[in-house]
Amino acid sequence: MQGEYAVRAMLELTKEYGSGLISTKELAALQEIPPVFLTKILSTLTKAGLIVSHRGAHGGIGLAKAPHSISLRQVIEAVEGPFRLNVCLGEPGDCGRTVTCKVHQVWHRAQNALLDELDVALDQLI
Fold first, then answer.
1. Strand partners, 71
2. Are 50 and 63 in contact (CB under 8 A)?
3. pTM (2 decimals)?
4. 91-104 tens-digit pLDDT
5. How far apart are CA 74 and CA 8, in angstroms?
6. Is 61 helix (H, G, I), strand (E, B) or coil?
């Protein structure tokens, strides 16, 4: 659920890009995201360098860089961690059957296809 909320928030921020900052409350309402979850997600996205947050009367949140330089994959991986369709696609040594497994190459191709699709820039989704 975090990934979905993060994507929805980032797409809203993409629409607002160049128009100034948006309040967390407004973002939560526009995208129907529970404020408690949104606050946690925004904190994670800030730490990942994808958004900026400013406090105060004229504060709010916005994208840290242009939408064309942020991919859907970056957003999801920021909150969910790296994509791995199977344990064998993780760190070397995570799976001792990689060399002998007949399905390993299938997993590898499927993951690469998924990652290629997720590497789309946010501005292409608006």
1. 121
2. yes
3. 0.86
4. 766 777 767 788 88
5. 14
6. strand
